Amino acid sequence: MMEFRVVWFIVSVFSFARLTSSVLFDEDFRRWMSQHNRVYDTEEYHHRLQIFTENKRMIDHHNAGNHSYTMSLNQFSDMTFEEFRKFFLLTVPQNCSATKGNHISRTGPHPDFVDWRKKGNFVTPVKNQGHCGSCWAFSTTGCLEAVTAIATGKLIPLSEQQLIDCATNFKNYGCFGGLPSRAFEYIKYNKGLMSEEDYPYKGFGIVCHFEPGRAAASVLDVVNITSYDENAMVETVASLNPVTFSFVATAEFMHYKDGVYTSTQCKNTPDMVNHAVLAVGYGIEENGTPYWIVKNSWGTAWGKDGYFWIERGKNMCGLATCSSYPLPAV
């Protein structure tokens, strides 16, 4: 009889703990829904609550450990990584190993810290690609905006939508993926890219309606940095301008919040890249860890006001396999 009571007590405590945990996550989820303006029917609510709960447990477990970066709930916290990958990353395989490096190395020394946001009006505000795998287009425009502003003194937001609609002949696939190097080639041979104001973003593909007479920026040539030459990326950012790069984003990156991102789960080869971004600078942490300062395209509510830091010097997640920048035609 005594054994039965002990077992019953243990089961009851365990069940109570699970119920209490479920209630707490339910309260967290309702607050999150209110914050992000989410509305679900009953069936979808329970499905999304389960996903949210798993994501929050992962975040809490990570933040309780000794890591170089923190994670947090964000606008993606009711999504599985499979869903997230479908809507926000490059779903068509992007192998950039065929690109040749034509970057000319420059001798140092280089400063320990560079941030083009602090050098002048050279970087546009963080944008939001929405439910479209068009990160490659935002990486492209961000870089061309910067190099054009550095050359002319005029910072003009450029059109990602034109790239989505019009650059398909250069092996880009609209909301399903592409590469900045190929997008630069399109702009070069197309004789220009319109402004965001004249060709606004929709977040889905429509019929190309480029007007050459309204081009706001052009590309004279495309510079591809030799794969795995991260030092050349540093040289470029230090002495010339921001650079685009592609890398492998994993489930843990989806909830990045602060600190220097590093991963043992990601691949580092050019055939695995699934996200394109813009390196606007670099620095060194107090503990000696070097990092890149990177502009993302998931809005300012994600990460460090739309930016993230990622460890530099180790080809982290393949970031040095596929980097490029344009020479502006001005």
Automatic annotation (TrEMBL):
Residues 1-22 form the signal peptide. It comes from the Eukaryota. SUPFAM superfamilies: Cysteine proteinases. GO terms for biological process: proteolysis. PROSITE patterns: THIOL_PROTEASE_ASN, THIOL_PROTEASE_CYS, THIOL_PROTEASE_HIS. GO terms for molecular function: cysteine-type peptidase activity. CDD domains: Peptidase_C1A. Residues 29-84 form the Cathepsin propeptide inhibitor domain. The keyword Hydrolase applies. SMART domains: Inhibitor_I29 (SM00848), Pept_C1 (SM00645). Keywords: Disulfide bond, Hydrolase, Protease, Signal, Thiol protease, Zymogen. Residues 110-327 form the Peptidase C1A papain C-terminal domain. This is Cathepsin H. It comes from Anabas testudineus (Climbing perch). The lineage of its organism: Eukaryota, Metazoa, Chordata, Craniata, Vertebrata. The gene is CTSH.
